[in-house]
Hints:
Elements: H1 4-23, H2 32-48, E1 68-74, H3 82-92, E2 97-100, H4 109-117, E3 121-124, H5 138-156, E4 162-163, H6 172-180, E5 184-185, E6 190-191, H7 200-208, E7 216-220, H8 224-239, E8 243-244, H9 247-251
Parallel strand pairs: 1-2, 1-7, 1-8, 2-3, 4-5, 6-7
Helix pairs in contact: 1-2, 3-8, 5-6, 7-8
Amino acid sequence: MLNYRNINIIFILLAAIVAALAITNRLSFYWFVPLLLLYTGIVFYGSYYVGSNFFMKVLCSGATERRQIAISFDDGPATAYTAEILALLKEAQVPAVFFCIGKNIAGHEELLQQMDAEGHIVGNHSFSHHFWFDLFSTRKMLADLQLMNATAAAAIGKTPVLFRPPYGVTTPNMARVMKQTNLKAVGWSIRSLDTVIKDDEQLLTKISSQLQPGAIVLLHDTSAATVKMLPRLIEKARNEGYEFVRIDKLLNLQPYA
């Protein structure tokens, strides 16, 4: 299994072999350069591909053959679009999970209360969503996630368990934080790129072409294109026989502590 522990063991052994051969003049010390580059490339892949499970377990899809899918929204609550998305979901009777940023909650507590009242889940997407969040120390990262949970709990009276790593990046420090908390990391199997794709038709085509049983769709309640596209995605998925289920049902997890 390709994970951080196993890769370190393999590369320590390879480095020892290269060192032994170099000392006996059977190999150049320059062989350490491609070895280091290969190691760096693997670690980079493990960090930035959320489904790699390189540092820690991240659930990215449901283990089911039934045509069930879950939709998720990151980065809210947002003044511009979260309320519109909630209205669309209510009309279509589709449940979702909103991975909220703690610093965005102040002044928008009623949106979290609406999410909860209408049967959606509030998840943890960090408090700061800092650009360098993945480089935080274990202690700083833990404090950030605990602050987000406390902020959410103050708004809805429930403490989130589901956590989505900011930017989808995982690290050894994050793995340590997961072990110190009740948080369960959740990724996605379909990345919509709705923060980049501004054409709602293109967005619909991209997502619908990747639908499969157990899929988790990553969307953002900060995107105008998502608001325009969402009703058609729901209709198209249902016409293809898909059922929208809450992510906790799809993954068989408790959403709150």
